[in-house]
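Narrative of activities, Objective 1.

The group set out to show that a structural description can be obtained from nothing but a protein's sequence at a throughput compatible with the screening campaign. Below is one input-output pair from the validation batch, recorded exactly as produced.
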Amino acid sequence: MYIKVKRIFDIFCMVIFAPLWIPLMAMLAVLVKTTSNGSVFFKQKRFGRDRKFFQIYKFRSMYTDAPKDVPTHLLKDPQAFITPVGRFLRKSSLDELPQIFNILRGELSLVGPRPALWNQDDLIEEREKYGANSIPVGLTGLAQVRGRDELPIQVKAAYDGEYAKKMNFFLDIKILFQTIICALRGSGVQEGGPK
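Output recorded for this entry:
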């Protein structure tokens, strides 16, 4: 039942905050396009709810010769592939803003487990233990406000499982506010993954 409420809430937020996100996205698109070669947006195959795949959208934050479909934490030297503007976008999490399109299409919710890469089998299988693959994936989630890139796979999956059990409107609101604080601080962003 709550999943239907989540969908209504997602659309409501997209409409209400359109005067903010539309001009911001336009400004960032110009910034990405004018500072490095390549497309404005980056598309990547991701693992969604009920083991369905979809294409996620982001602002391109890496050079065009960066390896495709490789999690950042597995790159030998991720900083070498990230553009100067991309560093700012990733640190502030503004590179995720185009996922508003995914929310509008119903592929993503505002809050839920972050969608794994299509080939990120370790995270997918770990989440399966907690039932976290059967709920909507999200723009942000419990794992993102409790450590994000600093967390090992097992801990991320456990937080996703905790969210799957407790999922409710007030928890979503709490996570959204915590996400804003984390984004302003640049908390949990660690290129190269947990050490």
